[in-house]
Amino acid sequence: MLKPPPETLHPMHILAFLIRRAVQAVIVMFVISLIGFSIQDNLGDPLRELVGQSVSEAERQELRDQLGLNDPFLTQYIRFLGNAVQGDLGTSYFFKRPALDVIMDKFPATFELVIGAVVIFLSLSIPAGIYCAIHRNSWITRIIMTGSIIGISVPVFLTAIFMVWLFGVELGWLPAFGRGDTVTLPWGWDTGFLT
């Protein structure tokens, strides 16, 4: 027996869904930034990393006032949010450089990692999904579905540790630590894909 065609979604339903998702994304970003800022605030005295031990207590106090480290937590957080919206993420006390510069230095490697993961994911999941849709009750479909459920259920950091162990330590196909050798392309991008 033929089923009736599914009802089409009204454009207002789609708009309401998108607005809900956007509001949820803003809330998640706010909570993550608050947690991250709280952790940074509780790591200890950032001046120890910035100036070391050789600075007098009076100079240290003056520097704390200049950097706004004596301000209440809420004041510091609101200042951070205002600056972050303008693209200023502050200064990395560890690297003694703007935090955005530190992030951008690592961006090429992160971007390559994401592209590589997406290519592998799509090249495996699309054919597996098509096979499972065509052969619904086969034993291969059951194996694929079980593997998918396990893959979704296992925390990402455990999967990452397992992959480093398998491909870096046991098989030796990839570096177990760091990025490995890189090649600088003509437009200045350092890539590890070509080594």
Automatic annotation (TrEMBL):
PROSITE patterns documented for this protein: ABC_TM1
Major subcellular location class: membrane
Membrane topology, record value: Multi-pass membrane protein
InterPro entries to which the protein is assigned, alphabetical: BPD_transp_1_N (IPR045621), MetI-like (IPR000515), MetI-like_sf (IPR035906)
GO cellular component: plasma membrane
Protein keywords: Cell membrane, Membrane, Transmembrane, Transmembrane helix, Transport
Subcellular locations according to the entry: Cell membrane
Superkingdom, taxonomy of origin: Bacteria
Residues that span the membrane, as ranges: 21-39, 113-134, 146-167
Domain ABC transmembrane type-1, chain residue ranges per copy: 107-195
BP-aspect Gene Ontology terms: transmembrane transport
Family: Belongs to the binding-protein-dependent transport system permease family.
Protein name, as recorded: ABC transporter permease
